[in-house]
Amino acid sequence: MASGTYPSKRKLAAADLQSKADRTGQGKARARAAQSETDQLDLKKH
């Protein structure tokens, strides 16, 4: 399979943080930072 077909562990962890923040309303800043970090790393890879 091509690279990028499956999300990285970091991206999955960030998505999990975002999901929990969306459900509970807690940890939104941390989840946003994690999502931003993974997005920046994706930009550097491509």
Describe this structure in words.
- The structure is a single chain.
- The protein is 74% helix and 0% strand.
- Helix 1 runs antiparallel to helix 2.
- The chain is mainly α and 46 residues long.
- The chain is built from two helices and no strands.
Draw up the topology in text.
Blueprint: H1 9-24, H2 28-45
Shape: flat
Q: Helix tally? A: 2
Termini Cα gap: 17 Å
Look at the helices and sheets and give the structural class.
mainly alpha
Give a quick precis of the structure.
By secondary structure, the chain is an all-alpha fold. It has helices at residues 9-24, 28-45. It contains two helices and no strands.
Describe the structure using short key phrases.
46 residues, mainly alpha, flat
